[in-house]
Amino acid sequence: MNDLDDEIRRAFLAVEVPATTRAALLEAPARTGWTRWLLAAVALATVGLAAAPVADVVESWLPAGFVGARVERVDVPMDPMDTWIPAGAEVRVYGVDDGWAVDHGVQRLVSSGERAALDLVDAAAWRRGPVGTVRLARAEGPLVELALRPEVEVGAGWAVSYVDVEGAFQPIEVLPTSGGLRRVRVEPRVALEVMGRDAACSPSEPQSSSWSRVELRPVDGLGEPHDRVELYDQTTGMALGPFHRRSYQLDGARLAWADLSGWMPIQHREVRAVLGTGDFVGLGVEASDGVAVGERVDLFAPEGAVLLDLEVLDVFDGGVRVAVPRQDAPVAVRASGPNLRAVRRP
Amino acid sequence: MDLPDLLERGFRYAVALTGDPADADDLLQDGWAAVLAAGGPMTAPYLFRSIRSRWIDRRRRAEARPLELLDVESPVGPEAERLILADALWAGLLTLSPPEREALFLHLVEGWTAAEIAARLEMPRNTVLSHLHRGRTRLRAWLADHLEEAG
Question: HEC states along A139-174?
Fold first, then answer.
C-alpha cells in the first residue's frame, strides 16, 4: 500500500505546469485583499499629487551610448495601475489632464513604483502639452500594453472587446487577467483614446458561447495533431494568445480549420496559426525545392532581405515548417505571405 | 505565499480532475484568473475550489452540447503522450474515475484527511473513503495486469 501511495505521489509531483502558462500567470504580482486597499490609498495620494507639478527634471551624468553622456532624467508620480511594468522597459508615456490624454513619446523606465524615474529618449515629445497624471504603457513594436482602470468596463478573461470612442468601434485584445489587472494590447492611438475622455469598453459578441472557428491556410501546415496552437494577427504580428485545440477538421493531411475555446479577436483579422513549441513557434512558409528536415534556411522577405536564419522542423506539401524563436514570431508572421520563401543556406 | 508553488499545485489538481494536460492548462488559467478577479486568498483550497467549479461547468456544457464535439481524433497531443504513455502509472491513473483520481491526489499529495476532503468537496466522508479505496484497488489491479502483459 505504501509503495503504491509513494508511486502515485511521485507521479503527480512529476507533473509541471507548462512554462508559457507559468510565465503568463506569474508575470505580474498578485494583488489581493489588503494590497487592493493599499493601492486605493496610493491612488488617492496620486490624485492629490496631480494638482501639483508632477515632474522634476533631474539632469545628471549617466551612461547612455557612451560613458558620460548627458541625459535628462525625470521623476514622476506614477499611476498605481502601471506599477506592473518592470524597470528597464521601453514605455510610452501619456499625460492625462482633465480627461484628455497627451502622448509624451516612448521613454525608458528606469525605476518603477510609487514614483517612476524616466530617462528621456524622446525629450521633444516629453515637452509637448500638459503632463497631468502620468500613465504608462509598455511599448511593444507597433503596439502597446496598457492597464485598464477599474471604471473602464471590459469583458473578462480572453474576451474580445471594443473601445467606443465618439461612435467609432475599434477592436482591441484583452489579455489574460494577471495580478488582478485587466490589460489590453492596442495601437498607441487607441491607447490615447482609452485613457482620454469618455472612453469605454464593452464585450463584443463571440461567435458562439464558448467556441470560435478559425479557417487555416494550406501553408500553415499543421497536418499532424498537436495540442497547442497559437494565433497571430497577420497584419500587425500581434499574438492573439495561446489556445488549445479542442476539435479540428483534417482535409487529407492538412488542418483545414480548428475550433478554439474562448472568445478570440479573430473576427476582423487575417489570422495565422502556428504551433507553440516552448521557446520556439513553428511557422509554415513556402520553400524552395529540396529543402529537408534539420537543414538551416534563410527566410527571405518579399523585398529580398534575409529576415531570419532558421531550422526546418517539417516538410509538407506546399512548404516547410520552420522553428522561429518566440521573440521573432511577430516579425516573421507580419512578413509571411506568398512572397516569403525559405531557401536552403548556401 | 509562494505563487509558483501554488501554480504547480493547481496544475496537478487540474490534471487529477481532467487527466489531460492541455485541458488542465486551460482550467488552471481560468481558475487562477477567477481567484484574482474575485480578490480571493491565494491559497490552495481556494484555488482548488475555483478550478473544480470551472471543471464542473465545463463538463455540464460538454454534456449539454454533444453536437459541438466533432468527429475528431483524441485531443491528447504530444505533450500529453509524453506525460501519459511514458509512465505506466499515469496510464493506470487515467483508467480511474475523476473523483477517484481527485481523492487520491488530495489525500496523498496534498495531505488532506478524508474528513477534510469531505468537508471541502461537500460530500460524505464515507464517499471519500470509498473513492480512495476503489482508486487504490483498481489501480493496483490495472498495474498487475499491465506488468503481467509486459512480461
Answer: EECCEEEEECCCCCCCCCCCCEEEEEECCEEEEEEE
Residue A150 CB neighbour total at 10 angstroms: 10
Helices and strands, number each (H, E), in chain A: 6, 22
Q: Do A25 and B77 touch (CB under 8 A)?
A: no
> Grid coordinates standing for A294?
534539420
| Best residue of A7, A12, A35 to probe chain B, by most B CBs closer than 10 Å | A12
Q: Do residues B28 and B55 touch, judged by C-beta distance below 8 A? A: no
**A14 contact residues in B (CB cutoff 8 A):** 87
How many CB atoms lie under 10 A from the CB of residue A93? 26
Phi then psi dihedrals of residue A70, to 5 deg: -95, 120
Length of chain B: 151
Measure Cα distances from A85 to A138, A168, A174 in Å.
7, 29, 17
The residue type found at A315 is: V
Contact A232, A333 (CB under 8 A): yes
pLDDT at B7 over 80: yes
Q: Find out whether A105 and A125 touch, Cβ atoms under 8 Å.
A: yes
Question: Is A30 in Cβ contact with B3 (below 8 Å)?
Answer: yes
Write the DSSP assignment of B50-75 as a string of letters: HHHHHHHHHHHHHHH-GGGS-S---S
pLDDT score of A336:
66
User: How far is B78 from chain A, CA to nearest CA, in Å?
Assistant: 6
* B4 in A contact zone (CB under 8 Å): yes
Q: Are A232 and A213 in contact (CB under 8 A)?
A: no
Who contacts A47 (Cβ-Cβ below 8 Å, separation ≥6)? A133
pLDDT tens digits, A278-287 = 778 888 888 8
Beta bridge partners of A173: A160, A185
Q: What's the sign of the alpha-carbon dihedral B81, A246, A267, A224?
A: positive
Q: Are A310 and A282 in contact (CB under 8 A)?
A: no
Indicate the pTM of the whole model.
Answer: 0.39
Q: Which of A158, A156, A145, A216 is nearest to A187 (CA)?
A: A145
The verdict on B77 touching A (C-beta cutoff 8 Å) is: yes
- pLDDT tens per residue across span A30-61: 333 333 333 333 333 333 233 223 344 443 33
pLDDT, average across residues B134-138 = 90
User: ipTM score here?
Assistant: 0.83
What is the fold, at CATH topology level, of the domain defined by B78-151?
Answer: Arc Repressor Mutant, subunit A (1.10.10)
